[in-house]
Amino acid sequence: MDMMIGPATPLERKCRDLRRSTLEMIAESGTGHPGSSLSCMELLVCLYYRVMAYEPSDLGWRDRDRLVLSKGHAAPALYAILIDLGILPPDEKWRLRQIGSMLQGHPDSRFTPGVEVSTGSLGQGLSVAAGMALGAQRRNSPSRTFVILGDGESQEGQVWEAALVASSLQLDNLCAITDFNRIQHDGRLDEIVGMQPLLDKWQSFGWDTQEVDGHDVDAIVDALQRPLVPGKPRMLIAHTIKGKGVDYMEDDWHWHSVADAARLARDFGRGAGTDA
User: Fold this and answer.
1) The pTM is what?
2) CA–CA separation, 18 vs 197, rounded Å?
C-alpha cells in the first residue's frame, strides 16, 4: 500500500497526502467511492494547486476559474482538497455522508463552500460547465471553466449534446478532462458500452483534443497550460488507473465503491498508522 516510492515533487507529495486523507474519510464513513476518487487525484491537484486562477479566501471572486466535478461520486477527493485549502473545517473530514454534514455523498453547492455546482446525476456536468463558460465569455471575463468527466459517464447522450453546443458556441474558455480509467460501477467499460476511439470522437465534435498520462503531474500541468486554440473548447483524455495508489484497489472494478469496509477501516481508519 505504498503510495509513493522514492523522491517526490511538491505536487506529487500533495497527491500522496490527499490520497491518504481521502481514504481516511471514506474509511470513517464505511461508504463512498475510493477507486473513482483516487483515479482523478492528480487531475484535481494540478487544477487547484497549479493551474486555476482561484483564491480560497475569496470564493465569490467574479473572475475566478471554476471546477465542475461532473463525476460527482469522486467527491471525497474534492473534499480533501477543500479541507486542505482551508475552505472547509478539518473536522468535517470525519462526517462524510452523515446527516447534516457539509460533505454529502455527492457535491452539493447548497451546503458545501467551494462546490460550484451540485453534481452526481451523471451526464449533466458538461452542460452546466458550458453554460458557465458562455456566461464568462459574454461578460468578457478571463475566467475559465474546467470539468472532470467520468468515462462511464460519457456513455450518457447529454454529454455529446453539450459537446456539440460548446463547439458551436466556440467556447475556448472551457476545458473538459475525461478520467479514462476504463472501469465503471458494474465492470470494465468495454464490456458494457465501449467508448473507443474516444480521441477521434471528441476531435470530430470540433474540440481541441489531447491525450495525457493522468498520473503524471508535469504532463497534466503542461497540457492544461498549453496555449488555447481560438474558438475550440479543449478536451484532455487522461489515462488513469482506478484506485491508484493502493495495490489491492488498482484496476479492480469492485473498488469503484467500497468493496470491503472492514479492510478499509483496518488500513486507513483512525489509528491505522501513517504509512499507506
Assistant:
1) 0.95
2) 32
